[in-house]
Amino acid sequence: MGIITGILGIILNNQIKKNIDLKQSKLDLENDIKNNKEEMNKLEEEFNLMKSKRVSELKKIDKDIDWARITKRQEERKIEDLKNNNSIIRDIVNLEEKKNEFKGDIKKLEEELNNVSNKLELTTEVLNYQELEEDLYTFQVGMFDKKYEYELSEEYNEQLKLNRVKQKEVVKKGEALNTKDINDIFSYSVKDSEKKRYINNIHKLIIRTFNNECDIIINKLSVANIENSRKRLESAKEQINKLVLILRISINMEYYKLKVDELQLQYEYLIKIQEEREEQREIKERMREEAKIQAEINKLEKEAEKEQLMYEKMLEKVKAELEKASLEEKSILELKIQNLEKNLKEAEEKMKRAESMAQKTRAGYVYIISNIGSFGEDVYKIGMTRRLEPMDRVKELSDASVPFSFDVHAMIYSEDAPTLEKDLHNKFNEKRLNKINLRKEFFNVKLSEIEEEVNNITGASIKFTKLAEALEYRQSKLM
């Protein structure tokens, strides 16, 4: 009984345990079912969303397909139209080919245009330079032509001031230099304001350098070094242009021309100063010459007056002796009276000549002289003097800084000596040795031509001495 009870207890316990395990299993299963349902709900929601999205996409695709079909039909119609109209297609093809050809032609024309522009720019500069060269003058001896015909040195000074004002205006307007875009030489990191400041500083430096070079050349200018100064001015421009070539900058030709004009003005200013000094010297020399002439006239008047008084007294004395003289003495005294009357007449004529010379301001002598030893063959000085003794003037010239004496070929008296001299100078003006200083009266001309012109002007036959003695020169040559 106890054993059975024990066995039943064991069986009951086992059954109870199984029941408990079953309940636990049921709970676990219910939890799993619940979880699965929740997961199922989530999946169902996601499916519905995905389905809705795909449905929308399908609808959109259907629309795109419909639009594509419509577009396809439109394109097919266009293609059909194009196929039905082959001439239009050919025209389009031809137009496309022509368009390509035109593009090639345009490219070639642009290249040619650039070349022509460069050539034009170069040609313009060359033409400007040639024009400038035409404006410049030949400074060889005897070949000088003035550009500015000013009478006074002060007028040249005023023009120099005006020229410098024009230079300042050109610089102020920014036209002193030829400039192209030089921004490429700067880094892109440099600000525009900085670029502008750098470029302005470069321009100022170039202009200041060129101006300083020109000022040095012009300030050192003299009559003797004009040709060298012109070359130095051009060299300064060319050297500066080479140095700044990389910056695409060069000195403007118009600005350079102003500098050349300044050099020309300064040169002619120096010439005019010399001429004015020469003119002052000539005025002083003329005054001395006039003083000498007046002194000669005064001396001649005094001598003539003294001789006249002397001969008058002597004549009175001899006439008084004649009244008391014997017959033999009378013949001697009469002869003496004749000589005294002759001398008195000469003294009176001498006085009249002195008075006439004092009254006449233009009467004088035009002389033709040469100096083979100093100037060579066929070189003659045509000058004028109002001296009573014209050879005194020739002697003075022979003593004035020439190694040999002058030979006189003609000494022509004229009531209007200045006009005769001027006519001869005008006639032989092209044959002057010194074409700058017209007060230098030497001419390279044949003596026969001078003689012919003198006779044409005076209407008389003036005797010329053809042979130049040149004694000192010929003796020195033999030695």
From TrEMBL:
Keywords of the record: Coiled coil
InterPro entries: Phage_T5_Orf172_DNA-bd (IPR018306), SNIPE (IPR025280)
SMART domains, sorted: T5orf172
Record has Ion transport as a keyword: no
Coiled-coil regions listed: 19-126, 219-246, 270-364
Bacteriophage T5 Orf172 DNA-binding domain ranges (all copies): 374-457
UniProt-listed Pfam families: MUG113, SNIPE
Annotated protein name in UniProt: DUF4041 domain-containing protein
Native source organism of the sequence: Romboutsia faecis
